[in-house]
Amino acid sequence: QVQLVESGGGLVQTGGSLRLSCAYTSTTYYMAWFRQAPGKEREGVAFIENYGPSTYADSVKGRFTISKDNAKKTLYLQMNSLKPEDTATYYCAADRIRWLFEARYKYWGQGTQVTVSS
After folding, report:
1. pLDDT tens-digit profile of 14-38?
2. Which of 3, 20, 40, 75 is deepest in the core (most CB within 10 A)?
């Protein structure tokens, strides 16, 4: 069992930056960030191995960075050069199965809204 609590969303102008945080209660899970815009399916944007490299969706590669601090039990998503199309509710997800960008994770946070104005 793991609990996830996101924070850090908000309103930002095009080209701006935000850092999302996700506090978790267990360190032995694969973790990822997803987002969902109104009327669209939930999509994976960044994935991090337990103790290894990260993977990014093409739409965010070079602009977003996922990281994890197991001592603080916090997952981060640093988002730079934000675009209006990044507007969505962002969720962190965790599971013992390596789902990568499949939205089949067992545990999800409540979501945090990110709005990028043009």
Report:
1. 999 999 999 999 877 899 999 999 9
2. 75
